[in-house]
Design a protein that fits this description.
The chain has 9 helices and 5 strands; from the N terminus they run H-H-E-H-E-E-H-E-E-H-H-H-H-H. The protein is of the alpha+beta class.
């Protein structure tokens, strides 16, 4: 059976990623980036509902009455009165903006919702929370710092661990693969119009750990095969190393996806918004993480080493 040459065919993987990124950039230009109120600032209103509510209609009504963009969703929770637990449905309205809603605007929102839907305006479960723009920007800044710090630490660790095969270049290519994964997750959020929030950051950090683990396994095989195959060139060593690791990567991906898809289905069935966002992000991230470890990191590292040799000869 003829083995797939990952190095010679890397142009197809690189080309696919480039096309994907061009598409994401086009979507970014046309749709822009949506930020949750936790990053941008604004107001979140939670109101208990008695009957079914159409979130799209609710957001349109709120936008018409206050003239600001609103995002509505229905969440399921439980209310315990000490005797029994009852399922309670909450209508969540997120109004992102440079300033939180005034009391007058909040009253208008509740009034229009009460006129069009069967909601409990005076329910003890209702909540109003406002986040100032400065607080939101600070949260966004800290989230970016957390991602950057994690990547720097990974760069240092991989550079040290694989110093015998050119650790810094291997680590840099591994980081590029991680940036590829983060970019794909970011692009998917743009395409689906999902707002970036703290759940997205948590998913990114999780995927970074998952993806670099796959990449490290391949680098480990390259390091071992460099000693076992001293007469082979780097291209052959990398191809053999990826072939030896690919079944493990696919099996790990499959078992991880089984758990994540089950979590996603559970959260959708029970309408748990935070779990839906988290599990959906992880599904996308684990798939692109496995892809980048196999088709991006090691082939990109070979390209780096190849160009370095050309420069030295010149």
């Amino acid at each position: 059976m003829r083995r797939f040459n990952f190095i010679k065919n890397r142009k197809y993987a690189f080309g696919f990623s480039i096309v994907l990124y061009v598409f994401f950039i086009c979507m970014l230009i046309t749709k822009g980036v949506g930020l949750d109120i936790s990053f941008r600032g604004g107001t979140r209103i939670m109101i208990q509902t008695v009957s079914e509510v159409d979130p799209n209609k609710a957001s349109d009504l709120v936008e018409d009455v206050i003239g600001k963009n609103a995002m509505a969703s229905v969440m399921e929770t439980y209310s315990s009165d000490g005797q029994n637990d009852e399922t309670v449905y909450m209508l969540r309205i997120d109004i992102a903006g440079n300033e939180p809603l005034t009391q007058e605007e909040e009253d208008k929102v509740k009034e229009v919702l009460a006129k069009n839907f069967d909601v409990v305006i005076n329910s003890p479960l209702n909540e109003n929370s406002s986040i100032a723009p400065t607080v939101g920007r600070e949260a966004l800044r800290k989230a970016v710092i957390a991602v950057v710090i994690s990547m720097v630490l990974i760069l240092l660790y991989v550079s040290w661990r694989f110093r015998t095969i050119g650790g810094l270049s291997a680590a840099a290519c591994g980081i590029m693969a991680l940036l590829h994964d983060v970019g794909v997750m970011f692009g998917v959020y743009i395409v689906f119009g999902l707002p970036l929030n703290d759940i997205f950051v948590a998913a990114i950090l999780t995927v970074i750990g998952y993806s670099i683990n796959d990449t490290v396994i391949i680098y480990d095989r390259i390091r071992e095969n460099t000693k076992l195959m001293p007469k082979s060139d780097l291209e052959n060593i990398i191809n053999v190393s990826i072939q030896q690791s690919i079944s493990r990567s696919i099996n790990t991906l499959a078992t991880t996806l089984i758990a994540l898809v089950a979590l996603l289905v559970f959260s959708v069935v029970n309408n748990i918004g935070s779990l839906i966002d988290f599990s959906f992000s992880l599904v996308i991230g684990t798939v692109t993480g496995a892809y980048s470890s196999i088709f991006i990191a090691a082939p990109l590292w070979h390209l780096w080493k190849e160009r370095k040799v050309v420069v030295k000869k010149a």
